[in-house]
Amino acid sequence: QSGGSTIPTPIVVETESQTIKGDLTGDGVVDEYDFSLLMANWGKVGSNISDLNDDGVVDEYDFSLLMANWTI
Q1: Quick one: which of 46, 49, 52, 54 could link to 62 by a disulfide (CB 3.0–4.6 Å)?
Q2: SS (H, E, C) 33-70
Q3: Which residues contact 17 (CB under 8 A, 6 or more apart)?
């Protein structure tokens, strides 16, 4: 008979990463780099990473979302 030893089983927990609205660079903060990217795309229409509210144009509404989540 065995000595009753057990081998622990690791538990893996997968979490969904939370994105911050306005974090255009994907570095986890909304800062001057994101602001620069938004300004570089200002006024552009169509699919664009800087179109934070998905209305088809990079404008003051996207700027407002970025500033509302400013983390620095």
Answers
A1: 52
A2: HHHHHHHHCCCCECCCCCCCCCCCECCHHHHHHHHHCC
A3: none
The owner of tokens 């209305």 is: 55
- Residue-wise pLDDT tens digits, 16-72: 567 899 999 999 999 999 999 999 999 999 999 999 999 999 999 999 999 999 996
With a threshold of 0.90, does the pTM exceed it? Answer: no
Tell me the β-bridge partners of 15. none
